[in-house]
Each structure stands twice: as C-alpha cells, then as structure tokens.
Amino acid sequence: MNPSTEIRIPREIVNDDTVKIAAWEVENGAKVQLKQVVASIETSKAVIDLEAEAEGYLEIVHSKGAELPVGALIGWIQPQPVATKAQMTAPQVAESASVGGNGAGTTAATGSRISKKAQALIEQYSLDPGVFAGTELVREADVLAYMERQKAEPAVGTAVLETARVAAEPGTLPENGRPLSKAEVPSVAARKRGVLHDARVSAAERGGKGLVALAINYLWRNWFLGNLVRWAPRGLILPLHRLRGVKIGKDCYIDPNAIIETAYPENVTIGNDVRITARAIIMTHIKAPHYLRKSGIMPIVLKPVVLEDHSFVGVNSIIMPGVRVGKASVVASGAVVLNNVPAYTMVAGNPAKVVKTFPRPAEEI
Q1: Could you tell me if 103 and 3 are in contact, meaning their C-beta atoms sit under 8 angstroms apart?
Q2: Phi and psi at residue 106, in whole multiples of 5°?
Q3: Helices in 251-307 by DSSP H: which ranges?
C-alpha cells in the first residue's frame, strides 16, 4: 500500500512568512490524479496552484481562508478513501472532531493536535506532550527538533569536559542516543596514519579505485587542469572544464575564477546559454574529517548539480550538492543555494529564497 502524501505550503516558491488558502479545487474525500491542481494559495505577490504529488483521496486539514506559515501541512493525499462527515456514524464524527480530520490526535493536556508519526515518537521516547502546548499541530519534525534541543541542554562546563573526553577516548560520542563502539569510530592511531591512509580511504570511497587511478585523478583533473583553467584564454576555459569531466552545453560562459567542483567534476551538468560569474562555487560533494564520517555525525555528501538552460549564477554565490537550478533562473550575488531553484525565478540570500518570479514565454504556459 502506498503511504500517505503530505500537502504543504511550498518553501521553495514562496517568499512570504505566511500565506492564505485561497481555495480548495477538490472536495474533501474526492479522488485526485497525479499533478491535478487541488488547492490554490494566496501570497503577497500572486496566487499559486498546488498540485497533487500522488494519486489518491484528498483529506483537507485546513479549510479555505486559513492563514498559515510557509511549510505548514494543509492536507494529505491518502491511499484509501477518506470518510466524510456525511458518511460517518455519530461515534466516528466525534472521533473525527478529536483528531482534526488529518489523522492527528488532540491531547487534553496541550490542546494541540498531534500527527500519528509525532505521537509514535512521543510514545517511543516517553516524552511529555505538555512540552508542545501552544503548538497548533505537532508534527514529527517538531518532536525531533525538541529532542535535539534536549541533547544540547547540558551545562557548558559539562559539554567542554565531554568534548575533551571524546577527543582523548574515541568511541563514546552518542549517535541517536546510543554510544558508539570503538569499532565504529576511527582510533587515534588511525588518525595518525597520514597521507597514505587518507588516500586509501578516498580510493575506497570512489568505488575501490586503486591509488594510481586516484593519483591521476587528483594530479591531472583536480590540480593541473583545475589550475590551468584560471590562467587559460577565454576560448580554452570550456574545453578544459569538459576535459575535467564537466558536462557543458552550447554558448556558455564560465569565469576563470569560478570553482566548478574540485573532486567530482563529472557530477556537474550545465545546459545551454548558462553564465557562471567570478568566484561562484559549485559543489557536488562535502567530505568531513574521517571521525565525523565514521561516527555518522556528518556522512559524506555526494549529489549531482544541474544548471538548466539560460540560468545565471552571480558573483560569490554558492551552489550546494544536489541542487537543480531551473531554466532561465537567476542566482543573485552572494546567495547560498541549498534547495532547488524553480524555473523563471530569482533567488537571493543565505539560505537562498525566491525573491522574484519572471514571466514565462507564452509557449511554456
């Protein structure tokens, strides 16, 4: 059975703090198809249609006219038919009133509605629901955030002592509430093995490639070609990046001072008529120290980046791993882009948010 699919006010295309549900285009309990418009929300600049991200039955959480923060849950696409109040018996109607119509229970202690996933976490970790008093709808993310805050609450002095102890005795740093065994954490001796040990680890992380292949990759692609790009004439910059492995379309411009992924350039795809300006950085990987990776605190991140046709990347901006910059979109100078950029929009800030929407050509509407 397919899981339930959330309908939320999208963060990536809304720049306001709060929006209003302008209308529900489908009745509660009605069957909807994938990509069917189910609701519209009103921002300070426009009315935006929300499409169903799955096929199923609509379950409305907040009705038309409700003003809600960006990211708020407003409904569900359920895999099974949703009973409307007209179809319920009297006991079922009473139960529906207690859960708010979205599978979220209400506690007398807090007056808050609690989602099923949040309730499961509360019961699993024996949390007091009263800590969420004043929250209209307690979600799984709210419970996880509360638990993270609890982990960070010990006194500063205790935290300093614990940090010193971990540095001296690896294997004791908690992960998800469980102490790590020494087998799971690199030993002090391992951390002192130097460059050769680091090279072997890097080779293993690249699918078991040998040290010779690793050396060629770093010396040829990363060091030689990467540095040659900075000094090459304009006509050679794109061919050099292509030689490094970057996939580049036609009529593009890349400033010689831009950094296009140092270790995995083959994970960068650039469309046609794209412009990347001075000191822009495009990253497809984040590689923390061995200890943070082995302990699970900060696993290695390796995700491709795609810049679609006609996009523009401004001066000193940073594109993080996994981001797709949409067609004819603009990344403003200094922006740090963590999420996908919708087509025909401008994003700015850290983290980057949509600040402007451009008109689409008639043939794309």
Answers
A1: no
A2: -110, 130
A3: 290-294
The model carries a pTM of 0.46
pLDDT digits (tens, 9 = 90+) for 145-175: 777 777 655 433 344 344 334 443 444 444 4
Residue 17 to residue 182: CA distance in whole angstroms: 46
Task: State the greatest distance between any 2 C-alpha atoms of the chain, in Å, as a whole number.
Answer: 78
Q: Kindly give, in sequence order, each residue whose CB lies less than 8 Å from that of residue 85, ignoring residues fewer than 6 positions away.
A: 93, 96
- CB burial readout 181-212, b (16+ within 10 A) else e: eeeebbeeeeeeeeeeeeeebbbeeeeeeeee
DSSP type of residue 217: I
**252 and 235 in contact (C-beta within 8 Å)?**
no
**DSSP one-letter code for 55:** S
- What tens digit of pLDDT does each residue of 8-23 get? 888 766 666 778 898 8
| Strand residues in 118-249 grouped as ranges (E) | 137-138, 174-175, 178-179, 247-248
CATH of 1-84, one of 3.40.640.10, 2.40.50.100, 2.170.190.11, 3.30.1360.70: 2.40.50.100
